[in-house]
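Translate structure to sequence.
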């Protein structure tokens, strides 16, 4: 028996042994990985290997992902993996986000700009599956922007405004509640109906419309040829259930 035949025989024997002792092999690999996983040189080498492998197999990965059976199988695998390693995965995600927050924000902003329809679909699906979370989130946002001088009648009118929102439309704050340069009030005259796409385009931009539009609505005064004068920040009003009736 020459060297090549001997090598092939040894490989086959080793393969059969691994197949018959899967749990033992898994335990050995885990112990070896635990010893080297935190070594910087190993982490860098592993990262380089994965990047190179992905670049070489990018097209094949995309092709496989489009096959429903493979996609469902991967989703099921990810769910099981998340259940078994939830704390570790969340910690890694938190550390990664802290180290790359600016890059991730810029990437997300660019993706949202290039894929408005996909973003709308994702938001619609999340809102439909998490109505309680959406109500709590909106209640927290609106609570701090309801002025103390607002009447109970206007609060009821605001509720009705939300309830009567036409199908396919959303309620928008004309002056955004959390804009970069201005913060509007959660009042009836600051509300309008917009399509989901228009609302996404408008976002928290201000001014989005001509200044005359805000003045005609009674939302903003003008002093000294264009210097905007905003009302003072309102005090918290706590005698109303803000979580009812909001989308």
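Result:
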């Amino acid at each position: 028996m020459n060297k090549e035949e001997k090598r092939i025989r040894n490989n086959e024997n080793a393969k059969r042994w691994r197949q018959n002792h899967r749990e033992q092999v898994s335990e050995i690999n885990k112990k070896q990985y635990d010893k080297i996983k935190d070594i910087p040189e190993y982490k860098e080498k592993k990262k380089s290997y994965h990047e190179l492998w992905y670049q070489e197999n990018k097209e094949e990965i995309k092709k496989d992902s489009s096959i429903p059976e493979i996609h469902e199988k991967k989703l099921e695998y990810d769910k099981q993996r998340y259940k078994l390693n939830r704390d570790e995965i969340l910690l890694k995600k938190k550390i990664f986000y802290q180290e790359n927050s600016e890059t991730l924000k810029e990437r997300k902003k660019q993706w949202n700009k290039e894929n408005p329809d996909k973003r709308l679909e994702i938001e619609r699906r999340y809102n439909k599956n998490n109505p309680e979370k959406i109500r709590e989130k909106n209640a927290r946002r609106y609570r701090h922007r309801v002025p103390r001088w607002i009447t109970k009648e206007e609060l009821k009118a605001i509720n009705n405004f939300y309830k009567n929102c036409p199908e396919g439309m959303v309620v928008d704050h004309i002056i955004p509640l959390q804009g970069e340069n201005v913060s509007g009030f959660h009042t009836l005259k600051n509300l309008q109906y917009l399509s989901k796409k228009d609302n996404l385009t408008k976002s928290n931009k201000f001014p989005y419309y001509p200044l005359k539009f805000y003045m005609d609505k009674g939302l903003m005064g003008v002093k000294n040829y264009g210097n905007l004068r905003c009302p003072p920040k309102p005090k918290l009003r706590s005698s109303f259930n803000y979580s009812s009736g909001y989308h």
